[in-house]
Design brief:
Immunoglobulin-like; 716 residues; alpha/beta; 14 helices; six-stranded mixed β-sheet; single chain
Length: 716
């Protein structure tokens, strides 16, 4: 019988051993080679990227003081912290502060020392790969970014290609700075202006947002919650989007009007892609839509100005009359009386204007010390006759030394009784504390308010009877003391529950009660909360109806100030409501209300904030291309922080000049019930700023900035 051999079996075993050895070698190579031999986790980009930056503070963790196990745990916790902030993407700079990058085996950069030193036998430490794997488990995305102020490096592109990551590079400056990456969606920077970033995302579908640096968000230096609230709506509601004609035209001033100044500012429309001249002079345009303006000189008679683009021209003729020489009469204007008379000693007067000014100097309307509301009664200490223009009138001195004009009040019959109160009671209504006087009368008053010490001085009035030692404010103390011309009600508040505003209300029954507002409290800011929950805001879009306000141009089909005011207010209302505020408006359509009616709305609603929204203009006898910016007006000191925040935030969001907070006695700012401010968003007499104010992007930037200013004005 032939002898059987074991060669085929032995050969098979040898081949299996070789295959096993080859597999082991491949595994070792893969482990040692790291990422180059492994497939990257597949991650699908979300519908909208909401990213956090892993900046130098984050990268600084990779140093010699941390073990590899600690660093791997740190990478996992990074994704959890980012997700807790509402992010679905992390952006990695890729380098560490001490030098080197987090990627391995690059041709154009050295691997960070700690990354190399963390390698184990048959295993390499690759932070970017680990981060990608952890992100894939959480359905998150990893991308690379070029840090601000750092030029694009070759190793950044190499790393992006190696790991299959999108590389974002910073472009633009200021609030327009954003990260771009070829055909990938833009990422706007929320930490520069959350409301504006949200507006860009919502106006440009697909655009993503950078919520901030992870270290800044975790440490509370930045807030992702506010940005997320701004992004919470399904879409922006419709507001009046304005269209700009790009047909060559001169739209301002009105050629039918005569011009008496030596210069005039022409304003018009044009094709922004073509050069423009006026009477041969090249015109520089500062905006994007072809609006233009040019200061020109005038001579007596007819002045013809012709704008030209290519073969197209547009002309206007402005007439400057010769100076009038006058003809004869040298006697001047006749002084006439307005019918007012001197008061009898001790006679009472009653304020008849909705708001009257108590002036320290009766001939200077800027010297307002207090506001006297309609119905206030006071004893006249002195009567002063003076001439106002061509009218002889009277001013009456009040018990506090200030004066009120005769046109704002009426003298009461002799024997009219002064206010007499026989007690004081406390109550609460809709979160507002009320102190109501027993007895009758509506006395004139003034106040002093320093920190938590608050005193109301009631003049031409008496008080007797009981009063509450404390009421709805925590830890208050109340005293009533007689004074020479009346009495003083003094209240001391506590830091834990301070006074926010007050209003003395004269009731229809002829009595007096005091409304006292608690300070609004900001809610805890988290991804699930509304920081302005419980806060009330009254927005007052200026002008309306037949009152168009400041003209962007005299042409009817151009948006005028009243329209822009309403559109900006509607945008602000939407943004404020996204943050949780309750918002009302004096008007939400094209109607007109008097200043008195607007003040009545303010005093009856008693909001936490009041903002009158306007747009500015300047005289046409200068170069209005150079006159622009945002400013806000306050009267009582309590309104100054809000005015400051409004001007600064609108300036930031729109990149307009911040003209700052300004003191002025505008009618609608003279309220003590809450911070009350008149905001001038921008100059419609400046062509480029007019474009900014009338575009959809500009209006949403303004609205978001107003909301941000209210949030910034909330007390700590």
């Amino acid at each position: 019988m032939p002898v059987k051999t074991k060669r085929p079996f032995a050969l098979g075993m040898i081949l299996l051993a070789i295959a096993a050895l080859a597999a082991l070698v491949v595994a070792i190579v893969l482990l040692i080679g790291g990422i180059s031999g492994l497939a990257m986790p597949h991650m699908t980009a979300p519908d909208q990227i909401r990213a956090v930056l892993l900046d130098d503070t984050w990268a600084g963790y990779f140093d010699e003081s941390h073990t590899r196990a600690e660093q791997e745990a740190f990478l996992a916790s990074t994704l959890d912290e980012a997700a807790a902030q509402g992010a679905n993407t992390v952006l990695v700079a890729g380098s560490v502060p001490g030098g080197g990058v987090l990627a391995r085996k690059l041709e154009n950069a050295e691997t960070a020392p700690m990354v190399s030193e963390s390698d184990k036998f048959l295993s390499s430490f690759d932070p970017i790969r680990i981060l990608m794997q952890q992100a894939a488990k959480r359905e998150m995305l990893v991308a690379l970014y070029q840090p601000e102020g750092v030029s694009l490096k070759d190793w950044m592109t190499e790393t992006a290609d190696r790991y299959g990551l999108t590389l974002y590079a910073l472009s633009g400056e200021g609030v327009n700075a954003r990260y771009t990456a070829g055909e990938q969606p833009e990422l706007v920077l929320a930490q520069k202006n959350p409301a504006l970033a949200a507006a860009v995302c919502q106006l440009q579908p697909g655009t993503g947002v950078v919520l901030g640096s992870l270290s800044g968000l975790v440490n509370g230096e930045e807030s992702a919650a506010v940005t997320l609230q701004y992004l919470s709506g399904d879409g922006l509601p419709d507001i009046a989007q304005q269209q700009f004609s790009q047909t060559l035209a001169i739209v301002s001033p009105d050629p039918a009007s005569k011009v008496y100044t030596d210069t005039i500012f022409l304003m018009g429309t044009s094709d922004p892609s073509q050069p423009l001249t006026v009477n041969g002079q090249e015109v520089e345009r500062y905006g994007s839509y072809g609006m233009w303006g040019l200061e020109v000189s005038l001579t007596e008679g007819d002045n013809v100005f012709t704008a030209q683009q290519g073969e197209t021209t547009a002309s206007i003729t402005l007439t400057k009359p010769a100076p009038s020489t006058g003809s004869g009469s040298s006697g001047g204007s006749q002084i006439v009386s307005d019918g007012s008379v001197a008061a009898q000693p001790g006679q009472l007067l009653r304020v008849t204007s909705t708001l009257a000014s108590a002036l320290s100097d009766y001939q200077d309307t800027s010297t307002i010390s207090m506001t006297a509301y309609e119905g206030a009664v006071a004893q006249v200490m002195d009567s002063v006759s003076f001439v106002n223009g061509t009218t002889r009138t009277y001013a009456y001195q009040l018990p506090d030394g200030n004066y009120i004009k005769a046109s704002d009040c009426e003298l009461l019959e002799e024997g009219t009784a002064q206010a007499a109160f026989t007690g004081l009671s406390a109550s609460e209504e809709n979160g507002i504390e009320y102190l109501t006087f027993a007895g009758s009368g509506t006395p004139y008053y003034s106040h002093t308010w320093e920190d938590n010490e608050f005193t109301l001085h009631f003049y031409s009035a008496t008080f007797s009877g009981e009063f509450p030692q404390s009421f709805g404010f925590v830890g208050t103390s109340v005293t009533v003391e007689p004074e020479e011309n009346g009495f003083a009600l003094h209240i001391t508040f506590q830091d834990s529950d301070p006074l926010w505003g007050y209003f003395v209300d004269y009731t229809q029954e002829g009595g007096t009660r005091i409304a006292l507002k608690h300070q609004p409290a900001i809610r805890t800011v988290s991804t699930a909360s509304l920081p302005l929950d419980g806060v009330t805001v009254l927005l007052d879009p200026g002008h309306g109806g037949d009152d168009m306000g400041a003209p962007g141009s005299p042409v009817e089909n151009f948006p005028q100030e009243s329209e822009l005011n309403l559109s900006a207010a509607l945008a602000a209302k939407y943004r404020l409501e996204q943050l949780g505020a309750t918002v009302t408006m004096t008007r939400d359509t094209d109607v007109f209300y008097t200043l008195a009616e607007r003040m009545e709305m303010l005093n009856s609603q008693k909001p936490d904030f009041f903002i009158a929204i306007h747009h500015n203009s300047a005289a046409l006898n200068s170069d209005l291309n150079q006159v622009g910016g945002t400013e806000a007006y306050w009267f009582y000191t309590e309104g100054k922080p809000l005015a400051t925040a409004l001007s600064a935030n609108v300036s930031l969001a729109t990149e307009r000049n911040d003209r700052g907070p300004k003191y002025s006695a505008f009618y609608v700012t003279r309220s003590n019930i809450c911070p009350a401010v008149l905001l001038e968003l921008g100059f419609v007499s400046n062509p480029a700023e007019y474009e900014s104010c009338a575009t959809l992007e500009g209006l949403w930037a303004e609205g978001g900035a107003i909301a941000q200013a209210v949030l910034d004005s909330m007390p700590d």
